[in-house]
Amino acid sequence: MRERDRPPEEPEAAVPPLLVACALGIERFALRGGERAGAPGPVRVLRTGMGPAHAARGVARALAREGWGAAAVVASGFCAGLAPGMHPGDLVVAEETRGPDGALACDGTDLLVEALARAVPGRTVHTGPLTGSDHVVRGPERAVLAAGGAIAVDMESATTLRTARAAGPRPLAAVRVVVDAPEHELVRIGTVRGGISAFRVLRAVLPAFFEWHRSLLLPRR
């Protein structure tokens, strides 16, 4: 076949980007300071601000930007552990997030658990429901949420993923680092040590997010 008779090659499809959403400046600082090599496509670490309303506005605006409409979304940052035996620096991978609009299943939970074990070896990874709240949860309220089956709570993940899903189909995940737990509440001595431990873990998770993103892009057999 002569060169001019060859059919034109199909252009390669652009790899959907990855949006990592967090609430606080310290969370964004940790995530942006992590190892960024190995991302299969564009990556943005978005600081939304604290609370469900800020999360909804920030994520909706980010996904409305040109080129970001099909982005995979990971809600990340710190959380409060609800299960006995949790420690600052433990990881939580949500099987589902729970909020006022109900539960939303996450994608590739097992992939993330395996990737995090490689990215942050030696850290305990918990899986289960991650519930949302519009305020900081302490004391007896922890027990109520734990009795409902949730293993951790934060203020933004449920709204982040619900907003992302409303904007169109895409892979969704929530990965949080425990900064306080039933036996290690923030008001107690040891908070600084626990916070430093959680910060160091959060700084190391990006390669696991990239691996999760890459794995979900592979064709299914």
Count of DSSP strands: 8
Q: How much beta, percentage-wise?
A: 15-25%
Q: Which descriptor suits the 3D outline? A: globular
- If you average the pLDDT, what whole number results? 87
Which spans have pLDDT < 50 for at least 5 consecutive residues?
Answer: 1-12, 187-192
The oligomeric state is single chain
Largest sheet: 5 strands, mixed, barrel
Helices and strands: which structural class?
alpha/beta
Radius of gyration: 18 Å
Order of helices and strands: EHEHEEEHEHEHEHH
> Roughly what percent helix?
25-40%
Number of helices: 7
In whole angstroms, how far apart are the ends? Answer: 33 Å
Walk across the major sheet and give the strand order. 3-7-6-4-8
Give your account of this protein's structure.
The protein is 34% helix and 24% strand. It is an alpha/beta fold and 221 residues long. A five-stranded mixed β-barrel has the order 3-7-6-4-8, surrounded by five helices. The two termini are 33 Å apart. The model is unreliable at 1-12 and 187-192 (pLDDT under 50).
Topology:
Layout: E1 18-22, H1 25-32, E2 43-47, H2 52-64, E3 72-81, E4 91-99, E5 102-105, H3 109-119, E6 125-132, H4 140-147, E7 152-154, H5 157-166, E8 172-180, H6 191-203, H7 206-217
Parallel strand pairs: 1-2, 1-3, 3-8, 4-6, 6-7
Antiparallel strand pairs: 3-7, 4-5, 4-8
Helix pairs in contact: 1-6, 2-5, 3-7
Key features of this structure:
alpha/beta; disordered N terminus; 221 residues; single chain; globular
Kindly summarize this structure in a few lines:
This protein is an alpha/beta fold and 221 residues long. The protein has helices at residues 25-32, 52-64, 109-119, 140-147, 157-166, 191-203, 206-217; strands at residues 18-22, 43-47, 72-81, 91-99, 102-105, 125-132, 152-154, 172-180.
